[in-house]
Design brief:
GO molecular function: hydrolase activity
Distance between the termini: 72 Å
Helix content: 55-70%
Number of strands: 5
Keywords: Hydrolase
InterPro entries: 6-hairpin_glycosidase_sf, 6hp_glycosidase-like_sf, Glyco_hydro_88, PolySaccharide_Degr_Enz
Pfam families: Glyco_hydro_88 (PF07470)
Protein name: Glycosyl hydrolase
CATH architecture: Alpha/alpha barrel
CATH class: Mainly Alpha
Length: 391
C-alpha cells in the first residue's frame, strides 16, 4: 500500500513538473495563431493598450534564464526572475500610459496606473522595497511622469534613487551598472538613468544631475561606439577603453536611443545642453537609419541582416525615430522609419494585442538570449508609439 501511494505521489510530481514546462509552450503556440492580422493602426493601438492595462496590475514575470525544461528548479532556486528586471517592465508600461492618459480619459487605466504606483510606495511616499540597483531609475522616471503635478509627494523616494545613482559614480565621473563591475560602463545604464536624472534635476533644482546624464551619454559616444559610427558596443572598460561584448546588439542600440531621446525631450529649448544632445541625436539617427531592416525592423544584431528581428529593439528605436523627426534636418527620414517600424510591430502582435518576438533577458556581456517572446517593456513602448503618433 505504501509503495503504491509513494508511486502515485512521484507520478503526480512528474506530471506537475511536465505541465509547468508545457504550459508556456502551449500558450505561445495558441497565442500565435493568426498573429499579425492588424491592418489599422488605431485598432492596433487600442489592442496593445487594452492588453497593457491588464499588465499594469499583473505584470508578466520575465525569466532570468533561457531554460525551457525543469523550470521548477529555477523557481525553487530563486533564479526565475529578479526585481531589477521587473522594474523596467513596469516602468515602460507607466511611460506608455502617461502618453495614453495625456490624450484620453480612461478611469480604468487611471485606476490601474495608480494601483501600480501605490504598490511601490508607502502612504508617506517612501519606497516599500527600495531599488537596490540603478535599473530602478527608469521606474522612478515613470512615476515622476505621472506625478508631475505633485512634486513633493514622492520627493523622498526620488532623493533616495538619486543617492543610489550617486553611490555608483566611478572614478571617471560616470555611473557604474553594478558595484561588482566598477570598471565597466554598460550601454543599458544610459536608458536606465539619464531621463530620470534630467527630470529629477529640473524638478528639484539639481543641475549636477543633468550634468551627470549628459556626461554619461557623451562619454559613451566617445568610448563606446564603433569607430566612425554611432553603433554602440554592449559595454566598455574605463581603464583600457576596450570594447566589451557585441557591437550592434539591437537592444543595446535601443537603450542608448531611449536614454538619449528622452533626456533630449525633457530639456527645455533654452537649456545649455539641449543643442549638444540634439547633435548627438542627429549622429545616432543617421547610423540607426542605415541598419534598419527592409520590413521596418531592427534585428537583435543590427549589423547582420540575416539575424532575427527583435521587437524590443524595434519599439525602442521607433520611439527614438518618432521624436527625432522633430529635428528638421532628419525629419523626413526619421518619420518614415518610425512609420515602417510600427507596421512591422503590427505584424508581430498577437490577436489579443500582446506584442511578440522580443529577445529575452541578457545573461552577461556578450551572452544574449536565444528566446524571443512577450516582453511588457516592448508593450509599453508600443503604447507610447500608438498614443504619441499624432502629437
Amino acid at each position: 500500500m505504501f509503495g503504491l501511494t509513494f508511486g502515485l505521489i512521484v507520478i503526480a510530481i512528474v506530471l506537475i513538473i511536465a505541465l509547468i514546462d508545457a504550459a508556456p509552450v502551449f500558450r505561445d503556440w495558441f497565442g500565435r495563431i493568426h498573429i499579425g492580422r492588424f491592418s489599422d493602426q488605431r485598432v492596433w493601438g487600442t489592442a496593445v493598450t487594452e492588453t497593457g492595462v491588464k499588465w499594469l496590475t499583473r505584470t508578466p514575470k520575465i525569466k532570468l534564464t533561457d531554460n525551457t525544461r525543469l523550470i521548477v528548479l529555477d523557481m525553487l532556486r530563486g533564479n526565475y526572475t529578479r526585481p531589477a528586471i521587473q522594474h523596467w517592465q513596469e516602468a515602460s508600461l507607466l511611460l506608455g500610459f502617461h502618453s495614453y492618459l495625456s490624450n484620453n480619459t480612461d478611469p480604468k487605466a487611471e485606476a490601474a496606473v495608480n494601483a501600480l504606483i501605490f504598490s511601490k510606495f508607502s502612504s508617506a511616499g517612501q519606497w516599500n522595497h527600495p531599488p537596490q540597483q540603478v535599473d530602478g531609475a527608469i521606474l522612478a522616471y515613470g512615476v515622476m511622469k505621472h506625478s508631475a503635478g505633485l512634486p513633493e509627494v514622492y520627493q523622498a523616494a526620488m532623493d533616495q534613487m538619486w543617492e543610489l545613482i550617486r553611490d555608483h559614480i566611478g572614478e571617471d565621473g560616470t555611473v557604474q551598472y553594478r558595484k561588482s563591475m566598477k570598471d565597466y560602463r554598460y550601454v543599458d545604464t544610459i536608458g536606465f538613468i539619464c531621463p530620470f536624472l534630467v527630470v529629477y534635476g529640473l524638478r528639484y533644482g539639481k543641475p549636477e544631475c543633468i550634468e551627470l546624464a549628459v556626461r554619461q551619454i557623451l562619454e559613451y559616444e566617445r568610448f563606446g561606439m564603433l569607430q566612425g559610427t554611432s553603433i554602440p558596443c554592449h559595454a566598455y572598460s574605463t581603464g583600457t577603453k576596450y570594447p566589451l561584448g557585441l557591437y550592434g546588439w539591437g537592444r543595446g542600440l535601443g537603450w542608448y536611443a531611449i536614454g538619449l531621446i528622452d533626456a533630449w525631450r525633457e530639456l527645455p529649448e533654452s537649456h545649455k545642453y539641449k543643442k549638444p544632445l540634439e547633435e548627438a541625436v542627429v549622429r545616432f539617427a543617421r547610423t540607426a537609419l542605415a541598419v534598419q531592416g527592409e520590413q521596418g525592423q531592427w534585428n537583435w544584431t543590427v549589423t547582420r541582416p540575416e539575424s532575427r528581428a527583435d521587437s524590443s529593439a524595434t519599439a525602442m528605436l521607433a520611439w527614438f525615430m518618432l521624436n527625432a523627426a522633430q529635428i528638421e534636418e532628419i525629419s523626413r527620414e526619421c518619420a518614415a522609419a518610425a512609420d515602417s517600424a510600427i507596421l512591422y510591430l503590427m505584424k508581430a502582435t498577437r490577436r489579443n494585442g500582446a506584442v511578440d518576438f522580443s529577445q529575452g533577458d541578457t545573461k552577461d556581456i556578450g551572452v544574449y538570449s536565444v528566446l524571443f517572446n512577450i516582453l511588457p517593456f516592448t508593450q509599453g513602448f508600443c503604447i507610447r508609439l500608438a498614443n504619441s503618433k499624432d502629437q
